[in-house]
Amino acid sequence: MNEPTAHRPPAAVEVHHPAPIPPAHTAPLVPVQPGSVPAVASVVLPDGRVVTGYAIEPAKPEPVAAKPVVSRAAVNIALGGIGFGAVCGGLFLLTAFITALTALITQLIVLAAVIFGGWVAVQLFSASGRRGGTTVNIRKAVIKRNHFRG
Q1: Coil, strand or helix: which one is 7?
Q2: Are 147 and 134 in contact, with CB atoms under 8 Å apart?
Q3: Alpha carbons 118 and 101: distance in angstroms, whole number
């Protein structure tokens, strides 16, 4: 099923080790900077190389300015103004609600009057052909509804 295959023998492996870079000079160089550029720090490493860089000073926080003291009267005035504004808003909403309720009641009264007036008109004008309700005959003094006979 599986036949053995021929493999190449492994090639020789070369291992590369990094070689340190020889220093260009043996004496440490200290550069001279003009006065406007910050001081540069140089460090000589044990193998003779020189590492140069700017010194970093720790960040100093700015002093906190003293907060002005707020008097109790100012706080009370501010809170009073907020309370007054809340009360005014509440009274405005209450007034608007009462106005809307009054308009609704007025419309309901007008609607009831129109419906009742229409009903009365229908009763008066539709019963012209038939005599219903109270019958009054003055000559005979007969009132059917009250059973008065004279």
Answers
A1: coil
A2: no
A3: 26
Taking only the tens place, the pLDDT of each residue in 48-102 is 888 877 766 777 888 877 777 888 888 889 899 999 999 999 999 999 999 999 9
Residue corresponding to tokens 């160089």: 29
CA atoms of 47 and 61, how far apart (whole Å): 39
Whole-number Å distance between alpha carbons of 104 and 98? 10
Tell me which amino acid residue 61 is. Answer: P
**Cβ-proximal residues to 28 (8 Å cutoff; 6+ apart), any chain:** 42, 44, 50
Among residues 40, 44, 9, the alpha carbon closest in space to that of 28 is found at 44
CA pair distance 140, 150, nearest whole angstrom: 7
The span from the CA of 48 to the CA of 42, in Å, is 12
| pLDDT tens track for 105-126 | 999 999 999 999 998 888 887 7
Distance CA 51, CA 30 (A): 10
